[in-house]
Write a structure and sequence with these properties.
about 425 residues, alpha+beta, Cytochrome Bc1 Complex, Chain A, domain 1, 2 domains, 11 strands
């Protein structure tokens, strides 16, 4: 069972003991990301995340940080999203103080040296190049560009290369001081926790400063007809993402959307994997996913399709969307997918880092904790009628969006396929 606590500085603490493990995960999450940026500092959240591992007053160079964690066999990582930025360390139970000391040090004492910033610019730009050269990954960015346009929700997390090249130390200090406050953070500890874990967490995080952090722009949904977003790139296959606007996290139909995505393309036995790959041989990868943010959401199907056969693939995907509108899912298929979600969730949460991410993400998206048990209960309550009702609401022309990466100069008439 989890416990919640708030320190005097406003920092929230979650502890989630888990059985059958000899490890501990410390996960620190800040409610900030690329949605909290403007056009001129787009990319700063991601760049700043890198800089926390480049040297502190106590561990002057990056090697000092890495070698200390490596010497205890620890795993460590960080990520930047559109609504949050997180830092994770996983160690053997007896090494919790080392993990806490390093985590505290990088988040409170990083130097952000100008020389390191200049050096890291090359790393960031190569990361951008890597993402852009991987259409299977980049298609998600193109889809969101189509949904949200020239707004923070539609910008890339890593930002444009021009911004990366122009950032200086003052940019980092300004953003850090405004967004990295105790009142904007959550610390989650999971795994084989010692009895004094609450005291340890308070000891290492009680000195975080408060800040008057600025909020993000609210997403405004504005669409009245199908939309196409094309990204020209010379490729041997067309990567497409075909989806619809849906609902934000915490919506009463959030669990229903999850089930719809699994039924459509969440497994090797799903409808679209079976149709596109097994029956028609049109794709190697096929997946449908539902994404829920704090104030918006979408459901989309991604696939890699042979050039010149994208129209056929789009038709197959739309046929399955229409089928959910017209026909109720039979109880056997519905229960099979519920059981799959339960099984996958159970397997995933055997790892303490996934437990930490689960609980922390709940705080960012909902300002409250949604436990795995609560989530699975919501899944179990979904009916065939719920799926039918939501399908009729979301699978409509005025919510339909198509993103394509391929060797095309212009739309080439893709809009004609978009008929729901």
């Amino acid at each position: 069972m989890y416990k919640q606590k708030k320190l005097n500085n406003g920092l929230k603490i979650l502890t989630v003991p888990t059985q059958g493990t000899e490890t501990i995960t410390i996960f620190v999450l800040f409610k900030t990301g690329s949605k909290y940026e403007d056009k001129y500092n787009n990319g700063i959240s991601h760049f700043l995340e890198h800089m926390f591992f480049k040297g502190t007053t106590n561990r002057p160079v990056a090697l000092d940080i890495a070698s200390e964690l490596d010497s205890i066999g620890g795993e460590y990582n960080a990520f930047t999203g559109k609504e949050c930025t997180g830092y994770l360390m996983k160690v053997a139970t007896g090494k919790i103080k080392t993990a806490l000391d390093v985590m505290n040090d990088i988040l409170m004492n990083s130097k952000f040296e100008a020389e390191e910033i200049e050096r890291e610019k090359g790393v960031i730009i190569e990361e951008i190049n890597m993402d852009h050269d991987n259409p299977m990954m980049y298609i998600e960015d193109v889809f969101e560009q189509g949904l949200y346009g020239d707004t923070p929700a539609g910008w890339e997390i890593s930002g444009p290369k021009e911004n990366v090249q122009n950032f200086d130390r003052l940019n980092f200090l300004k953003y850090f001081n405004s967004q990295y406050g105790a009142n904007n953070a959550l610390v989650c500890a999971t795994g084989a926790l010692p009895e004094n874990v609450d005291n340890l967490l308070e000891e290492y995080f009680c000195n975080f400063h408060k800040t008057d952090c600025h909020d993000k722009l609210k997403v405004i949904e504005n669409q009245n007809s199908p939309q196409v977003k094309l990204h020209k790139k010379t490729t041997d296959q067309v990567n497409l993402s075909l989806g619809v606007r849906t609902y934000p996290a915490g919506d009463k139909y959030e669990a229903t959307l999850k089930l719809i995505s699994i039924i459509l393309g969440g497994s090797m036995s799903s409808r679209l994997f079976t149709k596109l790959r097994e029956r028609h041989g049109l794709a190697y990868y096929v997946r449908t996913q539902s994404e829920a943010n704090s104030d918006s959401g979408y459901l989309t199907t991604n696939a890699g399709i042979p050039v010149d056969l994208e129209g056929r693939a789009i038709g197959i995907i739309l046929d399955e969307y229409k089928r959910l509108k017209k026909e109720k899912v039979d109880e056997k298929e519905l229960q099979r997918n519920k059981d799959m979600i339960r099984g996958r969730t159970t397997i995933k949460l055997e790892a303490s880092e996934n437990v930490a991410k689960w609980f922390a993400d709940s705080w960012v998206l909902r300002d409250e904790v949604l436990t795995p048990k609560d989530f699975l209960n919501k899944i179990e309550e979904v009916t065939a009628e719920d799926i039918h009702k939501v399908a009729q609401d979301i699978f409509r022309p005025d919510k339909l969006n198509l993103a394509i990466i391929g060797p095309f100069e212009q739309d080439w008439g893709f809009s004609k396929y978009l008929n729901l």
